[in-house]
UniProtKB/TrEMBL annotation:
Belongs to the UPF0045 family. Gene3D superfamilies: 3.30.70.930. It comes from Xiashengella succiniciproducens. GO terms for cellular component: cytosol. This is Thiamine-binding protein. Residues 9-97 form the Thiamine-binding protein domain.
Length: 99
């Protein structure tokens, strides 16, 4: 699985006394954007496409970004889609919906 392309959906739910959660989520998304990996932001989570180990390292960086952006606590939910043979891509699942 290490070398296969997977999709990992990450949802961060930060809380902070002095900052709106959306501002913290924006920092998490900025970390994802800076990674250079393919990703798609949705209203509830962000889906990241890439090699399993690289994406999991990014999930850790996303959590760190939330704390650097003043999160007091954080719930982080991830979902992983992989295949025994072949890769999982965002476009495989979404191309029929893209216009």
């Amino acid at each position: 699985m290490k070398d296969k392309i997977v999709n990992i959906a990450v949802q961060v739910l930060p809380t902070a006394k002095d900052k709106h959660p959306y501002a913290i989520v924006d920092e998490a998304i900025a970390e994802i954007a800076a990674s250079g990996l393919n990703y798609r932001v949705t209203p509830f989570e962000t889906v990241i496409e890439g090699p399993y180990e690289e994406v999991m390292r990014l999930v850790e960086k996303v959590q760190d970004a939330c704390y650097k952006a003043s999160a007091d606590s954080l719930m982080c939910y991830i979902k992983i889609q992989s295949r025994a043979e072949g890769n999982v891509t965002i476009s495989d699942k979404m191309e029929k919906y893209d216009s």
